[in-house]
Amino acid sequence: MSLAPRLDIRQSQSLVMTPQLQQAIKLLALSNLEIEGFIAEEVERNPLLEASAAEDSDAPDREPAAEVRDERVAADELVAGTGAGDEPTLDVDYATESHQQDSVADGGSGMDGALSMTGASTGGAGGEDGPDLDAFADTSLSLADHLLAQAGPAIARDDAFIAAHLIDQIDEAGYLTVSLLDIANRLGVPLVRVERVLATIQTFDPTGVGARDLSECLALQAKEADRYDPCMARLIDNLDLLARGELTRLKRMCDVDDEDMADMIRELRGYDPKPGCRYGGEPAQSVTPDLFVARTKAGWAIEVNASTLPRVLVNRSYYTELSGGQQDKASKAWLSDCLASANWLVKALDQRQRTIIKVATEIVKQQEAFFLKGVAHLRPLTLRQVADAIEMHESTVSRVTSNKYVSCARGLYELKYFFTSAIQSADGGEAVSAQAVKSAIRALIDTEGAKILSDDTLVDLLNAKGFDIARRTVAKYREALGIGSSVQRRRARTLEGAG
After folding, report:
1. 40 CA to centre of own chain
2. Are strands 291-296 and 405-408 parallel, antiparallel or unpaired?
3. Under 8 Å between Cβ of 253 and 233
4. Tens of pLDDT along 43-97?
5. Helices 486-498 + 247-254 axis angle, to 10
6. Per the CB 3.0–4.6 Å rule, which of 54, 55, 169, 289 could disulfide with 178?
């Protein structure tokens, strides 16, 4: 074997992730709102790009990003890196497109067969003339601000820093989450001084704020209502017995009869276990749908929510003006790169919408029974099934369905919701989805009445409905639904009767 140096030529194939390919993959996984932010960054960086509202008319010297049309091209072209010459025309024939002013299309001439698609809507409720939903958001003070406002006149000036630190340690539910001894050591003050300040804070509104546990929170509210007698104190000190439904033992400990015990339990139910939740916290964030699905006479209408997607325009007149002047080699190269980047972004956004429509169309095909009859008819579905049906890669389908929401007549759902595992039928028929089984479990428990159903009984009833399911699976689904065990539900029913 020769050890001398030599040159060899070898031929091999490898996938090269170009920057454009990486960006195309990233675009697929972004939601409409995230795409809006991405477009804003690109418009700021590229002088040849402009973003306009969906209802704006197109200038003759600009190329608009196409609205979603009848989808017939290969959905993996975006990821496969199709050349510019292979791209379909991006212009939209508005004379043949059907648009809805608000959201869901109500039909169009372009629909045929069981499933059809319409162009994305040209406007939305969130336009300039529509109501500003943010104006209706909760503008109340946070819990910390509410407490600090009360601490000003109630706390001595020398103790103000202690009060501010204590309030900062109170969580959103209104509970103090740090030991008083730790606070005293941290601030370098006596423990009795911290306790005195906390006692003052516990008199603030809302009643029960600053408590260190549930018992103290309820005790503060009972004292405010002038109901904190020795019997109520014993009941509050033994909430664990109340949770287990040991009413006989509690009546003996509190030295009360059935009527008094029922009255005390009724009183406790009127208290707020989380007094801080009525204040502050982060404002609730509404979910904006990325797609709309509606049933029409011609089939199913599926469209992208264009109200959250600005239309991207390439300003070719500006490019002509810049390229016509005297430029050096570097400036010409930069301008050419800007034009290529702008053209690529317009086509990539168009192909992204086509890909989303194609995946959503297959999901509606597979889950048509759900859209017609409800969750009980949801079929088992995997990413691979959809990918094979539309000839795309499974990872591409995963990216398309992540962080995307669809609005239909039955509500707002994440696209991932329609992918569920399969449960075999007891009679050997077609398998059903896990969501359908969860729906059946909830329906059985909601109608169980006075006779509490155990997990074993639920298994028998589900088997009678045609669901071949094990007891441990029933327990897992029940816990996922937030439903307690039969023992917990029986205790809750006993307490309801006592109250």
Report:
1. 23
2. parallel
3. no
4. 888 888 888 765 444 444 444 433 333 333 333 444 444 444 444 333 333 333 3
5. 40
6. 169
Residue matched to tokens 């003052």? 200
With CA atoms as reference, report the closest residue to 403 among 365, 356, 468: 356
- Measured over the CA atoms of residue 184, residue 187, residue 193 and residue 194, the dihedral's sign is negative
Per-residue model confidence as pLDDT tens digits over 182-204: 999 989 999 999 999 999 999 99
For residues 236 and 219, the answer to whether their CB atoms sit within 8 Å is: yes
Amino acid identity, residue 469? I
Residue with tokens 């390439």: 314
Contacts 24+ apart (CB under 8 A), 177-182: none
Name the burial class of residue 2, with classes exposed (0-12), middle (13-18) and buried (19+) by CB atoms within 10 angstroms of its CB.
exposed
Look at the block and give the residue holding tokens 């406007």. 123
User: Quick check: helix, strand or coil at residue 207?
Assistant: coil
CA distance 263 to 455: 33
Residue 366 · residue 414 · CB < 8 Å = no
Say if CB 208 and CB 217 are below 8 A apart. Answer: yes
Kindly report the three-state secondary structure assignment for every residue of 124-175. CCCCCCCCCHHHHCCCCCCHHHHHHHHHHHHCCHHHHHHHHHHHHCECCCCE
pTM here is: 0.58
- Contact of 271 with 208, CB cutoff 8 Å: yes
Beta bridge partners of 64: 313
